[in-house]
Specification:
single chain, 211 residues, alpha/beta, five-stranded parallel beta sheet, binds cytidine-5'-diphosphate, kinase, dCMP kinase activity
Length: 211
């Protein structure tokens, strides 16, 4: 069973992915961490984010374990990740490890932008998680404040709009729902309600396979 969750920044896909993975006892890969860690490696060595050769080397050098999430979740890292994620050679360097993860024996849960469209087009369940930019900015601002960052809601809203546009407009694996994805708009849902909806979609997909 492969569960693919895609969607824009702070839509709640990561939270849903973790909860679904725990529910079904499946491994989970947050693929955004791969792009964040690639950008972090470049920044740590004072390289430019658009240095393609260095970015590809950084992506190839990643190990799926030992992500230092503390250093990857800061406000500037989402933006930096979306810059390296627009480089086709970086995306190509990260495909095999994501596909291998998806092919784990009992299945896997992956969340990102292109799981249902590129990484696992044959996923059992595809959910495109979305919410209004305002709701997402509110969530991200709360989350970053919880991490001790002093952020302004309007600045986060601007970040989110800019990142959505960059992710949607890139040529390689742009952010868009797969044709067969179920759209889950969580604007007016709390985490529990979103989880109940995602579980219902997943159970229906499994039922359809059994039938
Ligand atoms: O992975 P993604 O960036 O899509 O979002 P996330 O990290 O799962 O969620 C961002 C924040 O929004 C977290 O702090 C969640 O607890 C919160 N959230 C929420 O308040 N309501 C939801 N329906 C989903 C997430
Ligand atoms: O949690 P949030 O949605 O804010 O960000 P993320 O999922 O960690 O992704 C950070 C950036 O990495 C995104 O804005 C995308 O540009 C890129 N990304 C991607 O291109 N493809 C993926 N499968 C996952 C992330």
């Amino acid at each position: 069973m492969i569960i693919a969750l895609d969607g824009p920044a702070a839509s709640g896909k990561g939270t849903l992915a973790r909860r679904l993975a725990a529910h079904y006892g499946l491994p989970h890969l947050d693929t955004g961490l791969l792009y964040r860690a690639t950008a972090r490696t470049l920044m740590d060595s004072d390289a430019r984010l658009d240095d393609v050769a260095k970015a590809v080397a950084a992506a190839r050098g990643l190990a799926l374990t030992d992500f230092d999430e503390n250093r990857l979740r800061g406000r500037e890292m989402g933006e930096a990740a979306s810059v390296v994620a627009a480089i086709p050679a970086v995306r190509a360097a990260l495909i095999d490890m994501q596909r291998a993860f998806a092919q784990r024996p009992r299945g896997a849960v992956l969340d990102g932008r292109d799981i249902g469209t590129v990484i696992a087009p044959n996923a059992t369940v595809k959910i495109f998680v979305t919410a209004s930019a305002e709701a997402r900015a509110q969530r991200r601002a709360l989350e970053l404040r919880g991490r001790g960052e002093d952020v302004d809601y309007y600045a986060i809203l601007e970040d989110i709009r800019k990142r959505d546009a960059r992710d949607r407009d890139r040529s390689d694996a742009p952010l868009k729902p797969a044709d067969d994805a179920k759209i889950l708009d969580t604007t007016d849902m709390n985490v529990e309600a979103a989880l109940a909806a995602a579980l219902a979609v997943t159970e229906a997909a499994m039922e359809a396979i059994r039938a």
